[in-house]
Design a protein that fits this description.
3 strands, three-stranded antiparallel beta sheet, mainly alpha, 65% helix, 3% strand
Length: 359
């Protein structure tokens, strides 16, 4: 997007500093699933079964899928954790096929076909006994869905499986739509950006998996559809994830020529310099934490005593996802490989732009 990329004209080599993990921490507990090491070989075997390209295998390996899954779902059983880890491993090559800058010129018809094939495979594979389940697809990024869906399905029930399948289809549509929208000329306003990112950051499917992992089924009156406080939680968790991701991945995004993210948009709409926009993003993350806390307390105040354990368990599941993402973001080379750790734990890097953006 030219209006955003122009903001970085002349900034090649400028040093920027990303706040430390502790500066972005909401103060929640980071937990680890005891099965993390145990699932590693089975997960590797599954990845190698479906993906023959060494580049894809290495990318998944560097992504720390087992670590993320373990900290996002610390109470999951061995089978549940392995199923969720397979799903997270599946996400990377599928998303990279359309999200990498090298694929920015993907033809609209190919994008629609990719979306539709993926959606059909998820919906049909999550439905036990469906005849569609027997079909094959030559693309492993789609063909492997059957394996992942069967693993997810085995740890859920009809209701939770359908909810997960629905959230996946919403996410798939949002991701492919965002690829098209990125090609526009006018930067979106911040609120619209949050609405889009809330849908395409893949947090709602993660939240749906809390039921599969912890067997935590929300009573109907406490679902986002029926409860205003839970609707706030449902909205804020993806926003937290999106802001954290956009902030920590800033170095990589600029290098890849992806400018439609939070910091460039704050520079554009609030007329801020890049470091000031980074600091503003940090403030906004903590504002989101506070909205979550207020909604959490509101839920506790109105919850019947008999329902309180399940509400607390579900909200803990939401917090686990955010803590897992924060820990993961500061642990992998994908984002932090070229940064320099400062004495206070912050991460300094020099702006590096694609050649087409250099003067």
């Amino acid at each position: 997007m030219e209006a955003l990329s122009k903001l970085f004209d002349g900034l090649e080599g400028l040093q920027l500093v990303i706040p430390s993990k502790s500066a972005l921490d909401p103060g929640w507990v980071l937990s680890k699933n005891p099965h993390q090491e145990s699932i590693s070989q089975d997960l590797t075997d599954w990845i190698n079964k479906w993906y023959k390209e060494e580049k894809i295998r290495k990318k998944i390996a560097y992504a720390g899928v087992a670590m993320f899954s373990s900290t996002a779902y610390p109470r999951a059983s061995f089978d549940a954790l392995l199923a969720i880890a397979k799903w997270m491993a599946w996400l990377l090559p599928w998303d990279d096929a359309i999200d990498d800058d090298a694929n920015s010129s993907i033809h609209p018809e190919d994008l629609i076909r990719y979306r539709d094939d993926t959606t059909i495979f998820w919906q049909s594979s999550m439905c036990a006994g469906s005849q569609e389940e027997t079909k094959r697809h030559l693309d492993p990024k789609i063909g492997s869905i059957r394996d992942v869906a069967m693993a997810i399905r085995s740890i859920g029930d009809i209701e939770s499986n359908q909810e997960f399948a629905d959230e996946m289809c919403i996410w798939i549509t949002a991701v492919t739509q965002s690829h098209t929208e990125r090609q526009g000329d006018t930067p979106v306003i911040i609120q619209e950006f949050f609405q889009r990112r809330g849908e395409n950051v893949c947090v709602h499917p993660m939240m749906a998996l809390i039921d599969h992992s912890d067997k935590t089924r929300l009573p109907p009156r406490y679902t986002p559809r029926n409860n205003s406080y839970m609707q706030i939680i449902w909205t804020e968790v993806p926003i937290m994830m999106a802001m954290l991701n956009d902030l920590v991945s800033l170095q990589k995004e600029l290098k890849d020529g992806v400018f439609e993210s939070l910091v460039p948009l704050l520079m554009y709409h609030e007329q801020l310099g890049p470091q000031a926009a980074i600091e503003r993003a940090k403030e906004m993350i903590h504002e989101s934490y506070e909205r979550f806390r207020q909604a959490e307390q509101g839920l506790y105040d109105q919850t019947d005593a008999k329902d309180l354990p399940v509400i607390k368990a579900y909200l803990l599941g939401c917090k686990n996802i955010i803590m897992a993402n924060l820990n993961w973001s500061f642990s992998i080379k994908r984002y932090m490989g070229l940064s320099s750790v400062q004495a206070d734990g912050s991460m300094a890097f020099q702006v590096s732009l694609p050649r087409k953006n250099l003067p």
